[in-house]
């Protein structure tokens, strides 16, 4: 029988729980027969034809009791696992249905996601954006439904496999009845279904569908499954990645211990192991400060990737993600500097979680003239944004902060539908990859730009742009982003002007105050 959403809706874990209790009683009763089975073994002093027949008969009876004990224990364990899994699966289905209902969709027994209550009286200028947002929600619901059906099918198939093993007398336990029960218990454990490695919505549904025991088992035995899995809550990703970091540290140290160096080594050329260890030290330094979450840890390529949050991404009202630009590496000073800026936003006391995302291959100076690295990182960044919303019961106010070439990467990511980004701030951008904000899949009026374009006089003879990176980059890309709101970087009241490419988030500047207001949902108070 194929599993559908209608099937899952009809499943009753309580009935399985009752069966588990009954099977437990039978298992315990069988184990209690151990002394009787042993005690009725023919005495060694018995001789004759009857004795010769009694011994194998006893062995057959004892083997049958052991077999039955193992089978009952296996079915009991499988039924208990299935009951827990079905309960978690139905909870995940309920959360998916709540998401559907709150957005005007319904889910049929067959798994179709229907738009039954679209918003009315949408202003004409916002219609395309609203349609795109609803398509994104519908796609997430479709992903979740598919994963729930897949997970339900796996639970059903694994339980059926154990039942088939018990029915077919395939267990061959030895030893005492207690040992036979242990053999059956081990055989009855239902394996944990690996994640789909799908889109964030599917990943979220998979994680929600696991029982608490299965989640603990994944964290203990398979942390690599979820450390970088967009759609899994931040707290669990952090826990998994910290465990992975410990193992990576030992592995990289072993690699470094086996590296031979000589007098001809080039001191400024780093080996992959040295890059990894530098990244590990930089991450360690952040985590040691407390109130941090490690949301991305990838050392599979030449340059390590990581994302660190200050604050709790799972519960914060506002989540801001900064994407740094040229020459950004985890093992250099980028993570410390950028996370310092995000921590400053967190410390404003407005329930902000600040994330630094170094999840793409940041370009060097010549590479900034092209869009290759930005396009390469765009998909992963879009999924990271999507995963934040998919992992939470209620979406936070999500802001993307793209600095320098990170602004180019951010724009490329926001060409994807369904990122869930509410506001976008692009500062120090070396040009733009779109001509108008309408090419980005974001809410109307939600994109802001900042440029440190105050001129500086040199002895009264010439002027130049404060942000030379922005000025040079604009020669190779669109210089202005039409439709975006340009915010002030000049001196305003007690706030200082922004004096260079790396100073937009310096405390006490107008640019910082403007960015802070966007992040904390106070857009009406920005200075243009």
Automatic annotation (TrEMBL):
Alphabetized SUPFAM superfamilies for the sequence: alpha/beta-Hydrolases, EsxAB dimer-like
Compositional bias per record (Polar residues), positions renumbered to this chain: 488-501
Pfam families: Abhydrolase_8
Record domain DUF1023: where: 305-450
Region feature Disordered, mapped onto this chain: 104-126, 488-507
This protein's name: DUF1023 domain-containing protein
InterPro entries, sorted: AB_hydrolase_fold, DUF1023, ESAT-6-like_sf
Domain of life: Bacteria
Naturally occurring in which organism (per UniProt): Saccharopolyspora elongata
Coiled coil: none
């Amino acid at each position: 029988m194929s599993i559908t959403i209608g099937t899952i809706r009809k499943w009753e874990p309580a009935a399985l729980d009752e069966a588990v209790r009954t099977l437990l009683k039978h298992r315990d009763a069988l184990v209690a027969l151990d002394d009787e089975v042993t005690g009725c073994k023919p005495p060694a002093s018995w001789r004759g034809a009857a004795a010769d027949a009694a011994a194998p008969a006893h062995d057959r009876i004892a083997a049958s009791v052991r077999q039955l004990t193992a089978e009952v224990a296996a079915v009991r364990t499988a039924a208990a696992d299935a009951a827990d899994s079905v309960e978690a699966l139905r909870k995940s289905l309920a959360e998916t249905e709540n998401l559907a209902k709150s957005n005007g969709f319904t889910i049929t027994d067959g798994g179709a996601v229907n738009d039954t209550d679209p918003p009315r009286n949408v202003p004409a200028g916002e219609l395309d954006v609203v349609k795109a947002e609803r398509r994104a929600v519908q796609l997430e619901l479709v992903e979740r439904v598919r994963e729930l059906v897949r997970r339900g099918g796996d639970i059903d198939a694994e339980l059926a496999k154990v039942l088939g093993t018990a029915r077919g007398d395939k267990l061959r336990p030895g030893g005492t009845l207690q040992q036979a029960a242990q053999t059956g218990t081990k055989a009855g454990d239902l394996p944990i279904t690996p994640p789909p490695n799908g889109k964030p919505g599917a990943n979220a549904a998979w994680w929600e569908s696991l029982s608490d025991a299965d989640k603990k088992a994944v964290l203990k035995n398979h942390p690599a499954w979820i450390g970088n899995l967009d759609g899994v809550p931040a707290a669990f990703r952090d826990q998994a990645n910290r465990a992975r970091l410990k193992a990576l540290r030992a592995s990289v140290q072993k690699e470094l211990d086996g590296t031979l160096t000589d007098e001809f080594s080039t001191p400024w050329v780093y080996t992959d192991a040295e890059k990894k260890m530098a990244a590990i030290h930089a991450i360690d330094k952040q985590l040691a400060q407390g109130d941090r979450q490690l949301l991305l840890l990838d050392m599979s390529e030449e340059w390590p990737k990581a994302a660190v949050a200050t604050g709790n991404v799972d519960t914060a009202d506002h989540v801001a993600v900064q994407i740094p630009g040229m020459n950004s590496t985890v093992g250099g000073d980028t993570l410390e500097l950028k996370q310092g800026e995000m921590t400053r936003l967190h410390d404003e006391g407005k329930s902000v979680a600040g994330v630094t995302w170094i999840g793409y291959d940041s370009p060097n100076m010549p590479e900034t003239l092209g869009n290759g690295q930005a396009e390469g990182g765009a998909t992963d960044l879009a999924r990271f944004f999507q995963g934040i919303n998919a992992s939470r019961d209620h979406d936070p106010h999500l802001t993307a902060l793209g600095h320098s070439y990170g602004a180019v990467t951010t724009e490329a990511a926001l060409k994807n539908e369904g990122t869930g980004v509410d506001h976008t701030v692009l500062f120090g951008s070396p040009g733009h990859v779109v001509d108008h904000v309408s090419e980005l899949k974001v809410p109307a009026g939600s994109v802001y730009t900042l440029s440190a374009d105050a001129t500086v006089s040199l002895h009264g003879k010439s002027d130049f742009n404060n942000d030379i990176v922005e000025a040079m980059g604009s020669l190779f890309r669109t210089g202005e982003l039409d439709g975006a709101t340009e915010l002030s970087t000049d001196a305003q009241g007690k706030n200082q002007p922004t004096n260079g490419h790396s100073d937009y988030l310096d405390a006490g500047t107008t640019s910082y105050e403007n960015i802070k207001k966007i992040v904390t949902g106070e857009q009406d108070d920005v200075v243009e």
